[in-house]
């Protein structure tokens, strides 16, 4: 991380690295200023003997979040990014489970973290707030100021320190409670390998402007949308609200975006709906036909032909990197038709997260690309799991990965770690797909258990099932993601305890179960709430060890 910060300061200096909102005001941070923050914060860690410590971090996206993330690791510590949508009790449990020494937070999340009990009792507020001192907490700005003074006085301890990049540096929890969540252990080598692969495969330059719209605790956004972007000299603008995303597109005028399909679909629908309202759908179709023919003879008219649409996207957008879930190939083709390239990739937290991305030299629509250079992917076929075969090309099986991007293992969970790897050291992703003759990966099915929502969030069904299993009128249950158009609906498939529903109509059974589900939903974050219910008359099919066969549901 030290080398990255030195590189961006030397290469891009006073150019703008970050733009972000503080209230309604947009502030800027240059590459040089970011280095000053980094050196100041890291130096203060050493002067206060906080180097090598473990910090949880929770809050909205901002430059101070990224700087803290990098400085903690660079001082030999471990950073534990937590989802800002977690409840206070869950955050407190993760802080304890992860053996955190301190907590870094934004002021808007103080109420969620105030009862946490980190080992050293250290709390760092990323915002300047008058109440911070009365709480006995530190602020990011005072630590930077303190560390910078020490550095200017000759303390070069942090500046010259280089941690072991092979050991645990970031502990990323998958969705769930501490009972069902897994702590993915990533080293700096894992993260840096991924960042530089993004740099090599995605054509971002210092002339580019990106909007950071996904949460920073998500490895995809942190590594690809921020660390890789800063290496390239990109200006990163933080989106302050999902509902203001299109407004911020108009304000920041991005040239590129790093998104999940939810955002891509939202942009697509807004544009096409507006075109329909104006009665210009036929004109657009004709225009796409004309530009398509022109491209075949080497003439690209898209940016001029569809200038009005491009202007609604800020006027400069030309590329989108999309990951986190499958993206509709027709949407990819539509954006390409107006002059915006969607580059699809594939990743998983355990791979830091990049597994594959479509290379700039040759993009295949429908594929998630080729394995990151320096890593390898193979398909393991096991018919005991009901794996099918592709009729024309390759065998479909589990996608397995080996390389510098693969995690160290699961925290405090050697059994799960052992199960996650093959005997020859390949990580089992739990996703099914196949490789074509050119080595491009095609995803054929969902993960075994994880439900990937269209906003890129991963939901572990076991966590929700824990709540359902406590309802006495439910005998068996499975939570699945049912596709509904472009959306994925969390659905509870229930086998009721019919002994408790004697002489009761199906309508009454359904009403009773819906009431119980509503009660469960009140205890879950919005993205984990059950939106659909299916009632079975027979038990689920099970394996010989009495495990429900999810693939049959």
Main attributes of the structure:
5-stranded parallel β-sheet; Rossmann fold; 553 residues; alpha/beta; globular; GMP Synthetase, Chain A, domain 3; Luciferase, domain 3; 19 helices
Please explain how this structure is put together.
- It is globular, with a radius of gyration of 25 Å.
- Helix 1 (2-12) packs antiparallel against helix 2.
- Mean pLDDT is 90; it is low at 383-393.
- The two termini are 46 Å apart.
- 35% of the residues lie in helices and 24% in strands.
- The strands form five sheets. The protein has a 13-stranded mixed sheet with strand order 2-1-11-10-12-13-14-15-16-21-20-18-17, with helices on both faces. Strands 4-3-5-6-7 form a five-stranded parallel sheet.
- Among the domains are: 32-163, Rossmann fold; 367-445, Luciferase, domain 3 (Roll), CATH 2.30.38; 460-552, ANL, C-terminal domain (GMP Synthetase, Chain A, domain 3), CATH 3.30.300.30.
- By secondary structure, it is α/β, with parallel strands linked by helices.
- The chain contains 19 helices and 26 strands.
Short précis:
The protein is of the alpha/beta class. Among the domains are: about 30-165, Rossmann fold, CATH 3.40.50; about 365-445, Luciferase, domain 3 (Roll); about 460-550, ANL, C-terminal domain (GMP Synthetase, Chain A, domain 3).
């Amino acid at each position: 991380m030290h080398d990255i910060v030195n590189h961006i300061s030397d290469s891009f200096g006073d150019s703008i690295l970050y733009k972000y909102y503080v209230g309604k005001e947009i502030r800027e941070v240059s590459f040089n200023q970011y280095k000053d923050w980094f050196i100041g914060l890291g130096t203060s860690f050493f002067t206060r003997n906080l180097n090598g410590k473990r910090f949880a971090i929770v809050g909205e996206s901002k430059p101070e979040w990224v700087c803290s993330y990098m400085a903690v690791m660079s001082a030999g510590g471990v950073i534990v990014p937590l989802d800002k949508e977690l409840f206070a009790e869950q955050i407190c449990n993760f802080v304890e489970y992860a053996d955190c020494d301190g907590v870094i937070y934004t002021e808007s999340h103080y109420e969620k973290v105030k009862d946490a009990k980190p080992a050293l009792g250290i709390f760092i507020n990323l915002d300047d707030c008058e109440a911070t001192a009365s709480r006995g907490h530190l602020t990011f700005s005072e630590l930077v100021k303190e560390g910078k003074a020490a550095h200017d006085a000759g303390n070069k301890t942090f500046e010259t320190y280089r941690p072991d990049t092979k050991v645990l540096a970031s502990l990323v929890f998958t969705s769930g409670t501490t009972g069902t969540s897994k702590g993915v252990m990533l080293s700096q080598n894992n993260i840096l390998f991924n960042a530089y692969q993004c740099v090599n495969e995605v054509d971002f330059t210092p002339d580019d402007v990106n909007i950071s719209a996904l949460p920073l605790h998500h490895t995809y956004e942190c590594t690809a949308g921020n660390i890789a972007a800063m290496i390239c000299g990109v200006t990163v603008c933080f989106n302050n609200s999902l509902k203001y995303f299109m407004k911020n597109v108009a304000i920041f005028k991005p040239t590129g975006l790093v998104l999940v399909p939810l955002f891509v679909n939202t942009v697509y629908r807004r544009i096409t709906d507006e075109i329909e309202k104006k009665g210009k759908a036929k004109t657009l179709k004709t225009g796409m036909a004309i530009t398509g023919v022109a491209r075949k003879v080497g003439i690209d008219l898209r940016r001029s032909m569809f200038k009005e649409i491009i202007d609604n996207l800020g006027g400069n957008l030309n590329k989108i990197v999309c990951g986190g879930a499958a993206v509709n190939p027709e949407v990819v083709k539509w954006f390409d038709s107006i002059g915006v390239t969607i580059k699809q990739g594939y990743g998983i937290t355990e791979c830091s997260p990049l597994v594959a991305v479509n290379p700039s030299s040759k993009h295949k629509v429908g594929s998630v690309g080729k394995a990151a250079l320096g890593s390898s992917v193979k398909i393991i076929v096991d018919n005991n799991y009901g794996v099918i075969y592709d009729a024309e090309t390759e065998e479909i099986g589990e996608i397995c990965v080996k390389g510098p991007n693969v995690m160290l293992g699961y925290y405090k969970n050697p059994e799960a770690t052992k199960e996650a790897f093959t005997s020859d050291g390949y990580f089992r992703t739990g996703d099914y797909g196949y490789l074509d003759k050119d080595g491009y990966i095609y995803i054929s099915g969902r993960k075994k258990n994880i439900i990937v929502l269209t906003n890129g969030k991963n939901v572990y069904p076991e966590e929700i099932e824990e709540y359902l299993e406590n309802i006495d009128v439910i005998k068996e249950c499975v939570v699945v993601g049912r596709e509904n158009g472009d959306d994925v609906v969390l659905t509870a498939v229930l086998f009721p305890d019919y002994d408790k529903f004697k002489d009761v109509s199906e309508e009454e059974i359904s009403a009773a179960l819906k009431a119980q589900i509503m009660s469960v939903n009140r205890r879950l974050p919005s993205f984990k709430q059950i939106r659909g219910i299916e009632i079975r008359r027979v038990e689920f099919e099970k394996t010989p060890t009495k495990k429900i066969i999810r693939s049959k549901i």
